[in-house]
Amino acid sequence: MFRVILAAExxxxxxxxRRILSGLIDEGKVQISYCSGLGAARIRSxxxxxxxxxxxxxxxxxxxxRLPEGTACLCIRRDADEMRRIAPEDVxxxxxWLIREKEKQKKPLARYGESAPVRAGILMEPSRYGTGExxxxxxxxxxxxxxxxxxxxxxxxxLFVSRSHLSYVFRRETGQTVGxxxxxxxxxxxxxxxxxxxxxxxxxxxxSGFHNLPYFSKCFRQxxxxxxxxxxxxxxxxxxxxx
Length: 243
Hints:
Layout: E1 2-7, H1 11-20, H2 22-26, E2 30-35, H3 38-48, E3 52-55, H4 61-65, E4 72-75, H5 88-105, H6 131-145, H7 152-159, H8 163-174, H9 178-196, H10 201-207, H11 213-224, H12 228-242
Parallel strand pairs: 1-2, 1-3, 3-4
Helix pairs in contact: 6-8
């Protein structure tokens, strides 16, 4: 059971957060309770040992230092000035990520360190950006990891947003699904390697992120209207004529 305490002055926030996490609560994965402020949350923490404390605003360094050891902390709002709420999908995705981290570590979450970047506000960093920035970050990640298992699931985990939120934003901003964009990016890379190197077709496919040669050939033909070898011959012939 993953235990969550919401420390907030506004009790309506508890209702909203509970609704956001209702799926995890119904599955018996999350237990959430409410306290009217951080002081009360610290007192209750001594009894229930929470895995996560949700706060309404950012914490000072002194307040962070007084949180229970091994407890993660997450801000519902960006900061006290802008009062900008994070996307509801991000709250659920963040809690799901924390649950996975706890299961992997088999011990309470650390509040500091690269293994669990969950200090107040840090985990929700992507929510500080607009939808255009989220799509740009996803495209940048794809450009750096297209040879790996680059899926909607893996990208959403790296950006700490839910799959549904990333899928909706990415398609709205680019006109393509994440999967379509990844395939098109890999194929464009393959086209560059076919004309700029003498690598074998299988090597081109692998370096472009395709680990199944027949599937690569099928996708390439759909995109460019010809096989990879025919594409190479035509491009090289055109280059020789220009020379």
